[in-house]
Design brief:
about 260 residues, mainly alpha, two-stranded antiparallel sheet, 4 strands, about 5% strand, elongated
Length: about 260
Amino acid sequence: MMRISDTVKHLIIINVIMFVGTVVIGNGAFYEWFAMYFPKNEAFQPWQIITHMFMHGGGSMENLSITHLLFNMFALWMFGSPVEQVLGSKRFLFIYISAGLGAVLLQVGYYYYAYLPTFNDLVSSGLSETQILRMLSTNEIVERVSDVQLLQLKKIFPVYNASMVGASGCIMGIMAAFGMMNPNAELMMIFLPIPIKAKYFIPGIIILDLISGVTGQSFFSPSNTAYMAHVGGAITGFLIMWYWKKTQFNKNRWN
């Protein structure tokens, strides 16, 4: 059995502690503090850009998902330990956090792409920004709106109230790094026990996430998954490793 590396072990401990905090602190308060909210939402706080990377599960007891935590921690151990053993703890942690930030950047950018045109149309139609935000935050139509305005409000309501949790973006960056370091390593999905080389397996997962993000069609994850965060994390991990591989740091280290 592969030995767990030190930084991976500490990251798993932090994730478990944060999950316990979500369970113990009731009424979804812990989730609201540390999940990543859409920046236009009043629940958004700057620290959430980092803290959401260590959160798992929903904001209420019935939505908590230990499966989400277990799957991510298994992937962190499986891919993270060999990457850390080659790169060292500092460079490993740099990829991990950078991938998480890349995940936020792409996912929030995608949200804004969906949100801003419709929001601006609502403003142009005569509603004030204050009125729009009040209705989006309360999910109550407290102003007189037309049928078209109502449809537009319903369209951007999920974006305004979206929240992100989980280490998936970070782990996708680590997976991309693993794939570049071990392109011929054979991997298998739990529900598809066929060995596939990492250089095909990992890009395939990224492409499926991209398709899911654009179309809304879920393949392996719940429909509320932040698919673009997965893609953003993977791209970030790939770019960092590509840069390092072109410099003296990696000149003779990998095939």
